[in-house]
Design brief:
Blueprint lengths: L2 H34 L8 H32 L4 E2 L9 H24 L2 H12 L14 H8 L1 H8 L2 E2 H17 L9 H4 L10 H10 L10 H6 L14
Parallel strand pairs: 1-2
Helix pairs in contact: 1-2, 1-7, 2-5, 3-7
Amino acid sequence: MDSLLVLIVSAAAMTVIVGTRYLLVSGAFAWATKIREPGLYTGLDNQIKREIGWSLASAAIYGIPAGIVAWGWDNFGWTQIYTDVGAFPFWYVPVSVFLYLFAHDTWFYWTHRLMHRPFWFKAAHAVHHESRPPTAWAAMSFHPWEALSGAFVIPVLVFLIPIHVAALGAVLTIMTIMGVTNHMGWECFPKFIVNGTLGRWLITATHHQKHHDAYRGNYGLYFRFWDKMCGTDIGLGNWSRRPH
């Protein structure tokens, strides 16, 4: 098969994978919301349709560079993704996961903060905040410009930081689950985590809910480190909103 055609197929396949992953995970947590908080999404059908539409468009924007990198890795050995478990010490596996999450969180914090500047908010980020309140379907509901700003983070990191293919899978899983659970309108983590030592440094739905309520602060994705360092941590939100 012609190399260009293989490249196109790889990009298309990755787009389908990203889109399917979004539909499955968001769908699962939307179903959990229906069980856990019945009526919470009542009256939001049109909003949810918009969220799904924007998210599937974002899936293509995320999938294309990922597909190109996957093609290059498979055919030319691009990237520092490795499959031999013995290539690095075992302790490096969780360290590499943390390095990816921290690097991604750093990029997300500063670009997200930029997106709240008036020009960028109006031009792009307003799409995400049109979800009032956000639902489990809003995790990837971005304007294409905003989706593009995040689409190259992981594809670039795989060229810079060695990571086992299973550890990369863990990073992508955490990224997907955190994105969905932080927007679904209720807290899935127990109070002892949210209000305890872990909760002071990890972002959960209660923390991100405050961002959507206040339209400022709490810009991080996984960790509260940059918010605390830069004075933009505005604390935890609340769940005073009840089902319709």
